[in-house]
Amino acid sequence: xxxxYCGVKINRFNSSFPVGKxxxxxxxxxxFEEFLIATGKEMLLEKIKDCFEKMEPMPKFAHDQALxxxxxxxxxxxxxxxxxxxxxxxxxxxxxxxxxxxxxLEMYVADxxxxxxxxxxxxxxxxxxxxxxxxxxxxxxTFKYNLIDEDGRKRKYETPIEWLISSGMILPSYKVKKAExxxxxxxxxxxxxxxxxxxxxxxxxxxxxxxxxxLEKSFEFKGAITENYIAQEFKSKDTxxxxxxxxxxxxxxxxxxxxxxxxxxxxKSGNNVKSNSLNIYMKEIKxxxxxxxxxxxxxxxxNIKSIPLYAAFLI
Length: 315
Prior knowledge:
Largest sheet: 5 strands, mixed
Low-confidence stretches: 1-8
Number of helices: 11
């Protein structure tokens, strides 16, 4: 019988473990499917899966309920302690203890100091981590070292970024030079985006008021929160993260490789789904179909699948 190894892929251990006796298991924050199960919404979950399979709209009451839970998930995130507190408070976001996520962030920073021997390096790691919301606030979210500080250079922050990726605290998405199989061999290693591992942590570290999310207030950073959520959902399914650009203005948020080939995925935070980027990709690359994730219901029109935000885990 193989043992299961649970840990973080950083230099925490001096001892070795027997090759062939260990099965590596990577733990992620709870995705939205697991969030629905934890909150006792199994019947809604089954309806979402059924409508996805048939690509037919959800009943309005079920669609609205799922969107409400999705917005609550953006606040609570998928860290087990955070979700448990939300459940203990009977799914009432007004009673949810925001200190839970704040404490998790503090423990993350403590871990950086504990497992990095050099104080200078731990300071750099913390600076990169706390700078990610600023990076995601840009129109073009490709990571820029000089946004960390005026002296920001690759050689200065490359190792801290690698540490954060290896620890699972951030998720990298790489630009591909061409949308061809296999995507991994066409990445541009100098062009990447970084997302936090949990959308609840992003909401907290960005100091966003929960009411602005729940009441669907319009603010620009909502797009970044939504994109981080999708990155987290894909990563929870062990899907590698890639994006594509064309010219100066066209950008596809994610490319996924499935049985239908390479499929473009465009992410929208609301129901305004107008975009030239997906139209350009469909015209230039001619995939079997495209996917648009938004607050709109399921549908299939003009060779584009409409997937509600709450169903991203099914892609």
